[in-house]
Amino acid sequence: MTTPDTSVRPRGHGGAFSPEAARADVPILHRTVNGHPLVWFDNGATTQKPRQVIEAVAGFYGAANSNIHRGAHTMAREATEAYEAGRDAVARFLNAPSPDSIVFVRGTTEAINLVAASWGRGRVGPGDDILVPVLEHHSNIVPWQLLAKETRARVVPVPLLEDGRIDQDAYADLLSMRTRLVVISHASNVLGTIPPVREMTALAHRYGAKVLVDGAQAVAHLPVDVQAIDADFYVFSGHKIFAPTGIGALYAKPEVLGTMAPWQGGGNMIESVGFDRTTYAPVPHLLEAGTGHISGAVGLLAALNWLTSFDRDAITAYETSLLAYAREAMATVPGLDVLGDAPERVAVLTFTLAGHEPGAIAAWLDRDGIAVRAGHHCAQPALAHYGLTSAARASFALYNTREEVDRLVASLHQLRQSAPTA
Question: Secretion signal: which residues (predicted)?
């Protein structure tokens, strides 16, 4: 048996990109649902996995399964090398200054909660403000509410404009010397909005505030450079970027990471333990108690290798054109209304259809093998901005095509002609 490939160099497609090449690598896209070829337009919830990721995870379990960092035998060394190669790949992918600035977590939600607990508890206090735009995912709202309740700080919502952009004038007015933290989604999961995170970060830093950027919806669509953004924290989930579930990453500036206290205790985060004195491992291991998701890190490495084997700028350009095509095509459906119209956005279209509940829309489309999301999308304040509690969402990825958009629109036209559900 062979050991897993831990190379962090892009390979496989030589930089060339086409949706057909991407689709050829993703087995699940070739199945049928309800007798129809699958159309996966639920990428905002999770992305599908290329065979390179599936094979990497299977190869790890078949050839190198071992715990890491605590063994002297061959397989322990191989597993450790694979795990740390995943960390190195994340650092390169984000243009982080060092792999030591990357902490493995279960995903975006855990990363945000880690920052709230490990950094926030010691630095947010009574009278401090945490600025949270209305477009945020619940995972970037609730942890700050819990922290604010514990520390007697305030969570201050930053309003949206009608087109789904963050109101930058209001943001500037809300910033003050009381602002301890600003949190921003790099891309909205429900509106697709891409805020000017670099400019917002620079403005927050003038007041001495730290900035956390939620990259969950951005990393699969946009090249990310954490040093250019100058974010103090950047977080994302592997399953949003073609990797397995249960793995994600937290980036923190080295000088910030070095001030963070242990979050959980035991296992990998210690150097020595005694009843009189316990000493801790250096970061990032300080924040990685217990056995990590080793196969997840192997899968994340493979996913990043796969994605970066394509020209990222070509992917972004293609998804932008696909979004424009879908927007124009969906405008032909009477009674269909798309939420938000921000000029900078990722390939997400959240919509309502007059006379039809969002859940019924999703169920109808599923009959035709088309998977979309319906509900509040864990972004209830953003929906409330438009007077809604629920909507349907089609979210695209590099492996989606115009032909699939045509199938979506044709099915919506047929639904429009059926009996209303609301």
Answer: none
